[in-house]
Structures are given as C-alpha cells and as structure tokens.
Amino acid sequence: MGEGLGFYKEYVAGMNAGLATVAVGHPFDTVKVKLQKHNTDVEGLRYKNGLHCASRILQTEGCQWKLTRPIITLTLLT
C-alpha cells in the first residue's frame, strides 16, 4: 500500500516541477524571442534592452503571456 502512495507523490512532485519550470522560464523565453524576432527596423519596433521589451509586453499584452498551453503540456509531461 505504501508503494502506490509513493508513485502519486512522485507524480505530484513532477507536476509541480513542470509548473515551476513554465512559471519561471516562459516569461524570459518570451522576452528573448521578441528581442530576436521583432527587434528589427522592418517591423518598426526597437527594444532598448530586455527590461524595455518586458515592459512593452506588459503594456500591450498584459500579464497573461499565453501561459495556459505551456503550463498544461509541461505539467503533464514532466
């Protein structure tokens, strides 16, 4: 009976690790991609640095940053 409970503890720990990975890493990855892809003169957007990019994202897109799909997939896969 104790072995079955250990499996669930490991599963919940893995889900929490996936959630923490997305919650911490995804905003940084979003800023990195915006800096790499949209920081050109063609788009008309110029970011001064990462903080300027993050503040523009918060002003235009809000705090959500489209976390729902990565949270679900990485939480279940980890």
UniProtKB/TrEMBL annotation:
Q: How does it sit in the membrane?
A: Multi-pass membrane protein
Keyword entries, A-Z = Membrane, Mitochondrion, Repeat, Transmembrane, Transmembrane helix, Transport
Q: Tell me yes or no: is Lyase among this UniProt entry's keywords.
A: no
One cellular component term from this protein's GO annotations in UniProt = mitochondrial membrane
UniProt-annotated location(s): Mitochondrion membrane
GO MF entry, a single one? L-ornithine transmembrane transporter activity
Solcar repeat windows:
5-78
Pfam families, per database record: Mito_carr (PF00153)
Q: Supply one GO BP term.
A: mitochondrial L-ornithine transmembrane transport
Q: Report the family membership.
A: Belongs to the mitochondrial carrier (TC 2.A.29) family.
According to UniProt, the name of this protein is Uncharacterized protein
The protein's organism comes out as Brassica carinata
